[in-house]
Write a structure and sequence with these properties.
about 625 residues, alpha/beta, five-stranded mixed β-sheet, 22 helices, about 40% helix
């Protein structure tokens, strides 16, 4: 489940970034609507795609290594981590309950407004007239308007047409779909950004419908500014004052040719191919497995449930049938040096009295035995050891599957998927069989990845059967990478040095792996200084719009004016003086006069003085009207 969520989340992130960079600002809104809904379904469906390939099993001779002494230990594996899945599921269902309640509450509020207010019915839509002051908004075929303004015909026809487009094109279906997805996947942050993009694209569609009626774009933009405010609208409704007014203005002026639309659309094909290849499930099966091939080595594995039933290979057997089971196991895996027995016991009392099982297993030739008491259903836990074979050319296989260093984490994830990392650290061993000429640092790189996967022990030729081989510092390739990064930043001036976060994290990771001797011989760790904060200046028109949203009172030459008039004045003449006075318990007051810019309360810098208009130079002809005074000197070099 965790792997599926990671894959679907990664698909969703990549597809959304593609939308933001390539599609969002293009005038192809119907296609974008289909893309936004389609990418949601694709991201949740791609991880379910499975590709199966069949390969011939490799027949490689194994190299003998030092076998460990016989051991018998009973371990209790019931820790806090065993309860972690239950805790996470509890948190998940609490989130589902919260978002379900919010969804039902928001839907009920809209339905309540529909039922309790006057309605004016038309063929394709219904106007709901509200007594409170509201920004026009739409839910399915219902358009919510202020009753007083509607009766006095103060609502422009362009606004009505805008909302009718939302109703006609059924934009509420899209919003309802993403709201339901947020209930099930409330923990995925990309869904919140995608919902915003879906609603913004709805505004693009409605704006386009209005402009297609021949309405002047400047007039329509002025109407949008007049309706722009911070007033809230229902979460599941489409509103004319939806955010990013500036972006909507930009997109209105954009014209996307048919060739550009086709080009952008065709870019999706390689992107989808890459996503399907990268995030689908790949299964590799062997056509045949030879008896002496130890690539698929498994321990002799017994499970004893709470009622003391004994299972071998998920089949119920009796105590007396254990010798026959061991005989069958040895026939399948004939290499005695790899023999190991594991016993999982659900009943704690049985786990304390396993002497008869230990004796009968030892009598039949298996010396190494590990027994664990597992709190829960032991019959449902099944572990599989992993055998890695490394050739001289650094090619290797994992349980018969060809792999590379980069592919190793994904291949390991295919084994023991029913076990947690904590359980793998108790039940799973990794056997590394390598030829003599394989570099040790290459084996160490593999061991690092295996250790992150979570294993009980690593068994390698000529080494102790534990993880001590992992504690010998950073590898040569890691030291090379560290020295390259550290030298790059140490060569920069210390006062102006800024280290990228990803490089800093990598430097810290490798530095913590290094031994004291490696640290002494490596480049010094670079000192870091945070980058200075960016300078932000505010334009006069932006300040006026901001004050309008804060319900400021506007005055022009000591006469009260509306916010729309103030915006219009500043657009016509940005040289006007703006003085803003903020009060603690009342709205700001903005005074606009005709004497340059001098705003004492905001950081609005005065604009540079307009350059003087150049005087038209008369043509100078030497000998006719040329004198020493009016003949310009040659240009200086």
């Amino acid at each position: 489940m965790e792997l599926y969520l990671l894959k679907s989340g990664a698909c969703l992130a990549i597809l959304f970034v593609f939308y933001k960079l390539i599609l969002e600002n293009e005038n192809m809104h119907q296609f974008k609507r289909a893309y936004l809904l389609g990418m949601l379904m694709a991201s949740f469906g791609i991880p379910f795609i499975t590709f199966t390939t069949y390969v011939e099993a490799l027949n490689t001779t194994t190299i003998n290594f030092t076998s460990s002494n016989s051991e018998f230990q009973v371990e209790e594996t019931a820790t806090l981590l065993d309860y972690l899945p239950s805790i996470l599921w509890t948190v998940y269902f609490i989130g589902v309950a919260f978002f379900s309640f919010r969804f039902i509450k928001n839907l009920s509020q809209i339905l309540f407004k529909i039922n309790r207010n006057q309605k004016v019915k038309f063929t394709d839509y219904i106007n709901v007239l509200l007594t409170e002051k509201v920004i026009p908004h739409t839910f399915f075929s219902y358009i919510f308007l202020n009753k007083q303004k509607y009766d006095s015909q103060e609502i422009p026809s362009e606004v009505i047409l805008h909302e009718q487009t939302h109703a006609k094109q059924k934009h509420s279906f899209d919003v309802l779909f993403i709201e339901l997805l947020q209930i099930a996947f409330w923990f995925n942050p990309f869904l919140y950004f995608i919902k915003h993009s879906i609603k913004l694209n709805h505004e693009f569609l409605a704006d386009q419908a209005v402009l297609n009626q021949g309405i002047d774009s400047s007039l329509y933009q002025s109407i949008l500014l007049a309706f722009s405010s911070d007033a809230s609208t229902p979460r599941m409704a489409n509103s004319i004052n939806y955010s990013f007014i500036k972006k909507r203005f930009t997109v209105m002026k954009t014209h996307t040719s048919k060739s550009r639309i086709w080009t952008r659309s065709l870019l999706l094909l390689p992107l989808l191919a890459i996503l399907i290849y990268s995030f689908s499930t790949k299964e590799t099966l062997n056509k045949s497995v030879k008896e002496n091939d130890n690539s698929f080595i498994n321990d002799f594995y017994l499970k004893i449930d709470s009622e003391d039933n004994i299972y071998y290979n998920d089949k119920l057997i009796s105590f007396g049938e254990i010798p026959n089971a061991i005989k069958s196991y040895k026939e399948t895996y004939p290499n005695e040096e790899l023999y190991c027995a594991k016993i999982d016991v659900e009943n704690k009392e049985t786990s304390e009295n396993l002497f008869p099982f230990v004796e009968i297993i030892k009598e039949n030739g298996i010396e190494k035995i590990t027994a664990c008491w597992v709190k829960g259903d032991a019959s449902k836990i099944s572990s599989k050891n992993i055998t890695i074979k490394i050739e001289k050319n650094k090619s290797f296989t994992v349980n018969g599957i060809s792999a590379t260093i980069n592919e190793l984490p994904n291949i390991l994830a295919k084994f023991n998927q029913s076990l947690t990392k904590k359980q793998r650290s108790k039940f799973v061993d990794v056997i590394i069989i390598s030829e003599d000429d394989v570099p040790m640092e290459f084996i160490t790189d593999i061991q690092e990845i295996i250790n992150d996967y979570g294993i009980n022990k690593i068994r390698v030729p000529g080494s102790i059967s534990d993880n001590s081989s992992m504690k010998n510092g950073a590898t040569k390739s890691q030291l090379k990478e560290y020295n390259k990064l550290a030298k790059k930043y140490n060569n920069q001036d210390k006062e102006n040095r800024v280290v990228l976060m990803k490089d800093l994290e990598r430097l810290e990771y490798i530095y913590n792996l290094m031994t004291d001797e490696q640290k002494a011989n490596a480049e010094p760790f670079p000192d870091c200084f945070p980058p200075p904060p960016p300078f932000v200046s505010l334009k006069p028109i932006d300040h006026i719009i901001k004050m309008a949203k804060n319900n400021a009172a506007f005055f022009y030459e000591n006469e009260r004016i509306s916010s729309d008039k103030a915006i219009s004045l500043i657009k016509e003449n940005s040289q006007l003086n703006i003085e803003t006075t903020n009060f603690k318990n009342s709205n700001p007051i903005v005074k606009i006069t005709k004497h340059g810019i001098n705003n004492s309360n905001t950081n609005i810098p005065p604009p540079p003085p307009a350059p003087p208009k150049p005087t038209k130079a008369s043509k100078v002809i030497k000998g006719v009207n040329g004198t020493d005074a009016n003949i310009p000197p040659p240009p200086t070099r």
